[in-house]
What does this fold into?
Amino acid sequence: MTRYFNQYAINWDHQRFIHNWTSWQSYIIRHDNQAVGIVCLSFFPEHVYINDLQIKSKFQGQGIGSWAMSQVEALALERAVNKIRLRVYHANPAKKWYLDLGFSVAVTEKQTSGMEKLLTNG
It folds into this structure.
């Protein structure tokens, strides 16, 4: 994330991060009993919002992120929510990955795209 903060001249706000962090539901992503990533979620009546999804670079491309997304989808459906939303920087290569996973761009802003995916139960 530091790369995007630097690229877009965004100042890090530690207090805001701490405030947000305490309201998120965060899950450590493990592979072979090793922490390899994290996903942080907020649950709303109409959607689940992915605040953060990070996989350590040496574990990317192994299907771990796709597995994590399937778990997010399962959590959403357990709560009878059929929409997942997130925001991604335009320069982030993960944007293509989200599109490949079935997300669509719902909102385009100066630095980011708001994306969403509609879920079906089955």
